[in-house]
Amino acid sequence: MEDLSRLCIHTVTTKPWDIERSIDEYARAGAGGITVWRDALAGRNITDVRRRIADAGLTTVSTCRGGFFPSVDASKRKAALEENREVIAEAAELGAPLVVLVCGADPKQPLTDSRAQIVDAIAELAPEAEKAGVKLAIEPLHPMYADAKSAINTMKSANDAAEQIASDFVGVAVDVYHIWWDPDLETEIARCGDLGKIFAFHVCDWRVPTRDFLLDRGLMGEGCIEIPTIRGWVEKAGFTGFVEVEIFSTEYWSGDQAEFLERIVEAFKLHV
Ligand code: ZN
């Protein structure tokens, strides 16, 4: 049997399943890891979820997500910091070593201001994250989200921010969906590796045509992203962690999740 020990699945990928079902099914499919989206924890005792994950033999890779730091409004920036402190505490309680950050952007101010606020916020949180034993990964988001979701849109921008913050607990999440188009990708992935800051690797595919810019991510192999090439760069840069399948898709969510999981495992073997 093919080794699936480095396969990790994000709970959002099988959104119709609750966290308990997701844990059981991922383990049964042979996956080694799980990334927990915070909405899946609503109303749950975190310690119980932690135990169930461990009992299933899965590793908790990260939680998604923190971030959304910038705002023209100082009180909102302060509230975002507080929220992220809760996210870090929750990750620690769950036993997750990493929180993925969607950094945010406020269209009412220049991107440069949003970027500066992101760096300030993460720099403030870094010592607290270190104390909690939880790392923070800046995920560069595709530039189509630069208006309101993230002012960090390239690997270079994420590397620059992480380098400026200069904490061992702050790095980068490399998600192929967001950065596959970047002509500097290979160079910046290598740089990220040299900095010791590749904290996570997320895969899915870019459907052609993409019918919705949030909820139409493809299964690996059905789009135009050169996933094995990018994985090769990431691993050449020293990354040995999990390959995380993160797919938001109204189409797949509307179908049978057990069949979808089988297809994920097949696609992981063939196209990653
Ligand atoms: Zn991602």
Residues in β-strands, percent: 15-25%
By CATH, the topology is TIM Barrel
Main sheet makeup: 8 strands, parallel, barrel
CATH hierarchy, class: Alpha Beta
CA-CA gap between termini: 16 Å
The CATH superfamily turns out to be Divalent-metal-dependent TIM barrel enzymes
Query: How many domain modules?
Result: 1
Rough shape?
A: globular
Strand order of the largest sheet: 1-2-3-4-5-6-7-8
CATH architecture annotation name = Alpha-Beta Barrel
| Helix fraction by DSSP (H/I, runs of at least 4) | 40-55%
Number of helical segments with 4 or more residues: 10
Bound molecules: zinc ion
Rg result:
18 Å
Look at the structure and give the mean pLDDT.
97
Number of strands: 8
Structural class: alpha/beta
H/E element string? Answer: EHEHEHEHEHEHHEHEHH
Low-confidence stretches: none
